Structures are given as C-alpha cells and as structure tokens.
Backbone:
C-alpha cells in the first residue's frame, strides 16, 4: 500500500493530525498494570469480607433468635455432649393422664407374653413394659435414602407409672451427630424397641445415619415390636387403612385438632433452616409427641385383645376373632379358649352372621364341636339359606351323629330357596342330599 493510501485512511479514521504516542516499554506497562490489579483485588476482598461479616452477624443473630424462640415456645433447652449441641424437649405424662380411651397408668400394664407374640419374638416376654423404648422420627424426606436426615427423634418410655417423652431436634445439619449420640445413650438403657413401621423406615434410616456420622450403635440388634403388622392383622378388617392417625381416631379414641399432615413436615423443616421461625416447628413437635404416646396405648390395646381380659368398649368382636386366628396359628387350639369363652358368653347373640361363621370355624378348629354346632344351628335358624352353616351342620349330622334323615331335611329346606346358592354350592348340597338319602334307615342313628 502506498503512502498516499495510508494518508487517506488516517484522514478517514480521524488519525491524521493527532500527536504521535510515545511507546511505553513493556516492562513498565506490566508493573503498572500489576499494581493496579493488586489494588483492585484488595478493594474487592475488603468489600466481600465486610459483606460476609455482616451476613455472618445477621445469620448468627437470626439463629440465636430462633433458638431462643424454640426454648420459649417448647420449653426445651440446648444440650451439649462430646459430639456437639442439639435441642431437647422433655415432657412427662402422669399416670392418671388420659389419652383417648386409655389412661397412661393402665397402658403400662400390658401383658408381656402378648407383646412377645405381637412382635413374634419370645425374648420380649422376659422383660417388662418399662424396658421398652418407643421411637418415632420426623425426617427431611418421606422416601428414605442416604440423603434423608431424621431431624426430630421422639423417644418414650414408662417409669414408675408415668410416661416420659424426650424429643431430640437437630436444629441444623451440623447438629445431627450430637443428636444421634444422645439417642445412642438412651437406647443403651432399654431392652427392646417399639415403633410403627419402624422396621421398614425409622430403624433402617437411623442405622444409615449412624454409619454416615461414624458412630457405632446396635439399634438394629434390639428386639423390635413393629406395631404396624399386628395392627393390620387384628384391626385392619374394619379400617379403610392402617395409618397411625386412622388407628388413633377409630380405635384409640384420640382426636387430633389441627394436626400437621406428614407430607408437609419436610418442607417445614427446610423453611425453619432458612427463616429460623420457631413457630414452624411447634406443630411438628406436637405431631411427633402424639405419635409416641399413641404407640404406647396401641401396644396395650392389642395386648388386651390378645389376652381377652374383657371385651373392650373400643374393640369389635371381629378384632377378637382375628386375634384368636393369630393365636391358633402361633400357639395351638388351647390358647384361643379364653377369647372364645369371652365372645361366646358376652356377645354371641349380638354379633353379625359373618362373625358367627368365623367364631364357629374357630370352635371347630379348637376341638369344641358342640359350641360350633350351636352356632351353626343359630345361623340356620336366622337364615336357612346360609350355605356355610347348612353345609357344616349337614356334615356334622351325617358323619358324627349319623342322623341322615335330619341331614336330608336340613338340605331340602335350604335347597327350596332356589335363588340363594351358586351353581357349585347347589351342586354340592344336592350331592350330599343324594348320599344321605341312600343311607339305610337302620343306620340313621347310633
């Protein structure tokens, strides 16, 4: 490019006529730039440091204010151990205190043999109700897994007729290790656990958290009564579901007012971490406390049904029948006699036809055939078209009494109701009628 062209470009870009800049040595420029950058960096660090200090001060103040609010609202205190600090609420229910249909002092007297059977662990029968540790957790998630933390651990136990509830709160994630250490201390003083769905959730989750915090604990080694499974077996026949809240309301007579739903609890805790508003946790503490107490009264209720001390006002005859079936499976016929006697003496005339069928079956299995026959006769008298009663009574008349004529009359009367039986049932009765009709008259009675 010619000089003339360069001059034209300078005129076009406005460079023409400007003084020529003196070139600065690279070394001088580099030193000056580094000094400026250093000064700028120091200023930025100073601003960030002041901002962080203000944030820490604000957070510290908010945390202190939240902790103080917790202590005031829940009447708890901060506890410190070798692993750090946590928040503890301790309460006691006196023996005369009611909980639904039960009184705490009465709930403490549950039968240990029955408790061992409910747990399917005979070792529990060696101890007393005061050796039990009732446990329930509130967590940061409902699905479990290593990312789920039990931020509130509710513990309960009987002592001298009263019921003590200790609730351990990790006010933030850093307090979990101290909270678990306190749980380990309490658990070491008890002989067995009582939970509600704890085998599938609470105990497994706690065991994982102990491992993650590098703490040893033999929580899983304790004999364990998980109330969910026996509650389903004995009470589930008349309930929409077997959640603890349902059992409380329909079985134990506990009415919760304004109870927080379980799905809302994790978010409440995260809101607490962000805002440190103690009012967010009050409902969670009450929810957890009632869960722990209800586990104690539910244990007593199930044990009372299994031992058939007397017909409980809040129990249903079918509850006792379900308990009798459980006893029959686990211990044999002799163990169900007490339940059968209570049912037979007090409510036999009032229970439903379906319950009478179950009771008659239990009488038959227990070898009390005369009692079973009486029930079958009552059922046929009330409903001549009841297939099970007709069939069982006809078998009895044919095989034991050998009164073939009576068996035939019974079946003919039942078959006269053509609309009651299925094809298979009608076919079975007609076959039995032909068989008893073919028997020789001389063999009709012993």
Residues:
């Amino acid at each position: 490019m010619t000089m003339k062209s360069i001059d034209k470009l300078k005129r076009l870009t406005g460079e023409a006529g400007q003084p020529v800049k003196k070139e600065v040595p690279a070394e001088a420029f580099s030193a000056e730039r580094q000094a400026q950058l250093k000064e700028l960096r120091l200023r930025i660090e100073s601003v960030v440091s002041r901002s962080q200090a203000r944030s820490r001060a604000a957070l510290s103040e908010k945390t202190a204010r939240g902790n103080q609010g917790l202590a005031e609202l829940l009447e708890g205190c901060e506890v410190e151990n070798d692993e750090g600090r946590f928040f503890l609420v301790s309460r006691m229910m006196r023996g005369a205190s009611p909980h639904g249909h039960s009184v705490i002092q009465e709930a403490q007297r549950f039968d240990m043999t029955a408790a061992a059977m409910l747990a399917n662990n005979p070792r529990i029968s060696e101890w007393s109700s005061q050796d039990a540790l009732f446990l329930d957790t509130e967590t940061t998630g409902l699905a479990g897994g290593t990312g789920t933390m039990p931020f509130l651990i509710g513990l309960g136990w009987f002592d001298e007729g009263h019921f003590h509830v200790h609730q351990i709160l990790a006010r933030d994630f850093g307090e979990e290790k101290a909270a678990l250490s306190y749980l380990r201390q309490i658990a070491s003083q008890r002989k067995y656990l009582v939970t509600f769905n704890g085998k599938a959730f609470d105990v497994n989750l706690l065991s994982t958290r102990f491992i993650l915090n590098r703490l040893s604990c033999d929580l899983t080694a304790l004999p364990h009564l998980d109330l969910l499974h026996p509650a389903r077996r004995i009470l589930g026949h008349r309930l929409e579901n077997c959640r603890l809240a349902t059992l409380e309301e329909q079985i134990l007579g506990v009415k919760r007012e304004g109870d927080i739903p379980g799905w809302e609890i994790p978010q409440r805790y995260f809101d607490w971490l962000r805002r440190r508003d103690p009012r967010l946790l009050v409902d969670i503490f009450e929810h957890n406390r009632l869960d722990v107490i209800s586990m104690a009264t539910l244990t007593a209720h199930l044990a009372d049904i299994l031992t058939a001390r007397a017909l409980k006002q809040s129990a249903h005859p079918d509850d006792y029948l379900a308990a009798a079936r459980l006893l029959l499976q686990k211990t044999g016929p002799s163990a169900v006699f007490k339940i059968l006697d209570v049912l037979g003496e007090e409510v036999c005339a009032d229970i439903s036809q379906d319950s009478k069928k179950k009771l008659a079956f239990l009488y038959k299995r227990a070898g009390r055939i005369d009692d079973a026959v009486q029930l079958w006769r009552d059922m046929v008298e009330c409903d001549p078209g009841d297939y099970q009663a007709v069939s069982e009574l006809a078998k009895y008349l044919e095989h034991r009494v050998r009164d073939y004529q009576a068996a035939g009359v019974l079946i003919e009367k039942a078959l006269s109701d053509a609309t009651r039986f299925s094809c298979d049932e009608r076919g079975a009765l007609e076959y039995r009628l032909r068989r008893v009709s073919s028997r020789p008259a001389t063999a009709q009675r012993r």
Observations:
- The radius of gyration is 38 Å.
- Residues 94 and 306 are 26 Å apart (CA to CA).
- The chain has a mean pLDDT of 86.
